[in-house]
Amino acid sequence: MSDSHVLGHQPGHSPQLVGTAETDAASNPSIFRLAASDVNFVVGTVLILVFVVFAIFAPLLAPYDPLEVNAIAALQSPSAAHWLGTDEYGRDLLSRVIWGSRASLAVAIGAAVLSALVGVPLGLAAGYFGGGLDVVIMRVLDAVLAFPLLLLAIMIMASLGTSTLTLMCTIGFLYVPYFGRLVRGSVLGVKNEVFVQASIASGTPTRRLLSHVFLPNVAAPILVQLTLAMGISLLIEAGLSYLGLGLQPPTPAWGSMLRASQGYLYVAPWYVLAPGACIFLAVLGFNLLSDGLRDVLDPHMRQ
Amino acid sequence: MTSGTAALLSVKEIEVTISSQKRLMTVVSGVSFDVRHAETVGIVGESGCGKSMTALSIMGLLPKRVSRLTAGSILLNDQDLTAMSKRQLRRIRGNEIAMIFQDPLTSLNPTMKISTQIIEALKLHQGLTGEAARREAVSWLERVGVPSAGRRADEYPHQFSGGMRQRVMIAMALCCRPKLLLADEPTTALDVSVQDQILRLLKGLQTDLGMAMVLITHDLGVVAGTTDRVLVMYAGQVVESASTEDIFYQPGHPYTRALLAAIPRLDDQREWLYSIEGRPPEFHAVPAGCRFAPRCQYVIDDCRQAPPLEPLADGHQVACWRASELLESWGSSNAA
Amino acid sequence: MLLEVRDLTKRFTVSNLGLVGSGVRTVYAVNGVSFDLAEGETLGLAGESGCGKTTTGLCVVQLIKPDKGQVLLDGVDLTQLKGKALRQQRRKFQIVFQDPLSSLNPRWSVRTVIAEPMVNYLNLNQAELNNRVSDLLHSVGLPSGYAGKMPHQLSGGERQRVSIARSLALQPKMVMCDEAVSALDVSVQAQILNLFKELQQRFGLSYLFISHNLSVLRHLSHRLGIMYLGKIVEMAETADLFAHPLHPYTHSLLASIPRPDPQTERTREPVSVKGELSDIEGGLPPGCLFHPRCPYAEALCREEEPLLREIASGHTVACHFPLEAQVEEAPATDYVE
After folding, report:
1. CA C4, CA C72: separation in Å to the nearest integer?
2. Neighbours of chain C (3+ CB pairs under 8 A)
3. Tag placement on chain A: N or C end, fewer CB within 10 Å?
4. Between chain B and chain C, how many beta carbons pairs sit less than 8 Å apart?
């Protein structure tokens, strides 16, 4: 007793689906608009940009040569001639912090990127292949985590000398496990998803699976971690410089400037402000950027 | 079988609104129905039609921050549940109205023994304690068909299979002898043989206890075997309300008709199933007028105005302008 | 014969982390399953949860590596292949999964999803890929404008159509459908079932259709196998199986299905089958796996495991006392008009 004649369905007729799923602009804002409306993201980006500009255009922006010694003008308080004052050698503090941002940012960004370049593939391999490889990689990463930073820094500086590159590598090396674990965790979470099985069934080879399926899924947390790592690297670099293990004077570096300023705290209290504020603002900038990225890239927010 | 003429539960024009992604959406609108004592009413519809929300609003279990009952009243024995305080509701919930859900795993506390959970309900609503409570709990487990009830009462939910857990949930729900049981897709997650057992159990207990039941499901087979009356919901509204016989043999609404024709049946020889084109409206873009009109074969200009739920025959209401005209042309044939 | 599956076996070790003691036991998810699938045919595999039908399907398509057995596709044994060789064969068989949402990569557009198989095997430029994606979208009843949409913007039925379009991209010979309509609403299910049929007629596809829903299988499959605890207990042409179920389990299964017909439902009686499938705690029962629950079990059933025997043309059953043999017990069925 077929009802088809009443309900008018023609056999063999594939129902034409009328597209009703229109993109509702109000509920799916583009990622850029979302980013622009997030306070953390905007403030963080601005702060970082300031220092990036300092770093790139230092020769143009710095009013004085940061290395130029002027004994007469030593330890002057901020004035029209020297906006942030001068240090114990009469060098202009503003110029020194502007030039200092080169070293600090270079190390901060470089260390973070290096550690991501090493940590991410390790995490992908450990998570995807599992088994013995996973165990070996994770134990190695655990060992790195257990490394005391200072000891390592001293060892490396003593043997290889202090340069931007060695600093980058040292700090980067110590941060690798964080990326490794992050990526491994994400891979493990995604590995059993049906769409991964579907990709395998579609004939996708393993390397493409890793680069096109797993990596994009973890790209957001990696970015967030990257900016966080930059902030932490900067802090570590400043700390190492402060302890004398980082970039050596007369190279302008925020950390070593901070150390120098300590001796003159009662005599020239403004001296500490310059490098201190820079470190504070730069790290704040990275942290805010990281928070902002997390807010913007979190898929729940996107939908 | 219905008994008594006064309604046990009377739902009048309820409206449920949820807020999602900064938007307010009305997911249940203008729903009214009665449930008489010892009657079984089925609410049937596809996902998103609002049937679960209707049940949750009766129990007062709408997820708090995101949904609210924004209009209408729910009368249980002539008492308005919507006007009650939390304390009053707590006395009613579990005691006079009980609810069982689709997934017993998430409704049972995984860290407590089964016996403890049942005894908790007995203590709260019936004031039983100690040995008496335990005896009652075990006897209920036996009644719902849990073998070795005395021993198994001290086990934990994860030690039971899906069907057994559902039986336990039924025991918990019925141990306080509620007048009304709301069952939201109670057998959807179960194998078909277990489903059969559970449904027969529910019917048996219902007769023993003289209890009314509202059974929410998308499965028309379950509806055919278990209910006395059926409500068909679409896009948050009731489009048809009739006795189970009428719904299956004399469906008045084009949607009901289409639904019946879309199910593959064990006994049919059709090559193609009837498929309704398109999909239900999004709740933030509900069309004015009849909500089924965009997908309806019989749409006319009048459908731009929303048809009210009107009596088609005795005890049979349909929300369609062309209901009586269409029913005549269809004849009273089996909808297959 | 397009597909020949022989003695497929897959074991899982399950550790019992109970509150009282623990132990490890072996579960035979697939326990010596064999069947054939011809070109242009739909073979249904039915059973309740835990019967091993999904695992069987996944073993056939090599997403799970079976422990034993052969899967011959056009004569090539897939179980012996790895890496590139296996990938070469994957073109011939594709999969449509149960959950429309999780089977699509949430970060990929519809176009990327459907194009993926073609990117893997064919050397097409972007324009050609786009054209093919459009064609595939049309074949499944979606407008080509959908290519740029993201999965979360689509309804369940639309997503499943995208999955189906993807599965057709390489013009496979066989599609394994794992509960492909189980997560869909009734009206959408009807659309997709019609689509499956139409595509089969148009492209000569074979389907291995796994489902717990016998009504769906009745509608779609040419032949149907019933599985219980990892084994096939009965296999026949669909109409024959429904009209003359020979295995007590099949009969009880059919008897438990509620019919959307109140008058029939009033008179439907359950077939007395004791207990539940998952009551098997301490390992498999000896002899016939179904005997502890079977209303017709005899001594022989406890001692000796019945093998699949052909009772009637094309109708095999693994039972010492198949139902038709018991004249008085021949079940009255309402499964055929």
Report:
1. 5
2. A, B
3. N
4. 138
Domain limit, last residue, from B215, B232, B249 = B232
Better-predicted residue by pLDDT, A157 or B336: A157
| Mean pLDDT value of segment A76-93 | 84
Tell me what pLDDT residue A9 has: 36
Q: Which among C25, C18, C64, C21 has a CA at the least distance from the CA of C284?
A: C25
Whether C208 is in a domain gets the answer: no
What's this model's pTM, rounded to 2 decimal places? 0.83
In a shared domain, residues B120 and B239: no
Judged against a pLDDT cut of 50, whether residue B293 lies above it is answered with yes
| Cβ-based neighbour number of residue B32 at 10 Å | 16
Task: For residues B74 and B81, give the distance between their C-alpha atoms in angstroms, rounded to a whole number.
Answer: 6
Tell whether the model's pLDDT for residue A237 goes beyond 70: yes
| Assigned domain for C327 exists | yes
Q: What confidence tens digit (pLDDT) does each residue in C10-22 have? A: 998 877 665 555 6
Interface test with C, best of B191, B218, B230, B333 (most C CBs within 10 A): B191
- Between chains, do C194 and A193 touch, taking CB under 8 Å as contact? no
DSSP structural state of residue C80:
G
ipTM computed for the complex: 0.87
pLDDT at B222 exceeding the cut of 50 = yes
Chain C, nearest residue to B191 by Cα: C48
Q: From residue C323, give the alpha-carbon distance in Å to each of C241, C247, C249, C256, C291.
A: 12, 6, 10, 17, 14
CATH number for the domain spanning B130: value is: 3.40.50.300
C17 within a domain of the structure (yes/no): no
**Of A249, A253, A242, nearest in space to A282 by CA:** A253
Q: Which domains does chain A have, with CATH numbers?
A: 30-302 (1.10.3720.10)
CB A195 within 8 A of CB C104: yes
Report pLDDT for B277. Answer: 81
Nearest to C214 among B47, B194, B266 (CB): B266
Tens-digit pLDDT profile for residues C242-251: 989 999 999 9
Give the one of B194, B263, B271 whose C-beta lies nearest to C186's C-beta: B263
Task: Of A88-92, A113-117, A126-130, give the lowest mean pLDDT range.
Answer: A88-92
Q: Which of C226, C168, C208, C217 is nearest to C189 (CA)?
A: C217
CB neighbours of residue A178 within 10 Å: 20
**CB pair distance less than 8 Å for C91 and A203:** yes
A190 touches C at CB < 8 Å: no
User: Residue B260's closest chain A neighbor by CA?
Assistant: A3
In a mutational test of the B interface, the residue from C16, C182, C187 whose CB has the highest number of chain B CBs within 10 Å is C187
Q: Is C125 helix (H, G, I), strand (E, B) or coil?
A: coil
Residue C221 lies in a domain: no
Confidence at residue C270, expressed as pLDDT on a 0 to 100 scale: 77
Is pLDDT of C46 > 50?
yes
Q: B75 and B69 in contact (C-beta within 8 Å)?
A: no
Give C208-232 pLDDT, tens digit per residue.
999 999 999 999 999 999 999 999 9
Whether the CB of A200 is below 8 Å from some CB of chain C: the reply is yes
Using the 3D structure, point to which of B200, B232, B264 is the last residue of a domain. B232
- Interchain proximity C105–A205, CB inside 8 Å: no
φ, ψ dihedrals at B236, nearest 5°: 85, 0
Nearest to B263 among C155, C253, C260 (CB): C260
Same domain assignment for residues B307 and B320: yes
State the pLDDT at residue A100: 87
Quick one: average pLDDT of C85-105?
93
Same domain, B144 and B242: no
Q: What is the pLDDT of residue A157?
A: 75
Read off the tokens for A11: 């056999």
- C-alpha B256/C-alpha B309 separation (Å) is 14
User: Is B144 found in the same domain as B48?
Assistant: yes
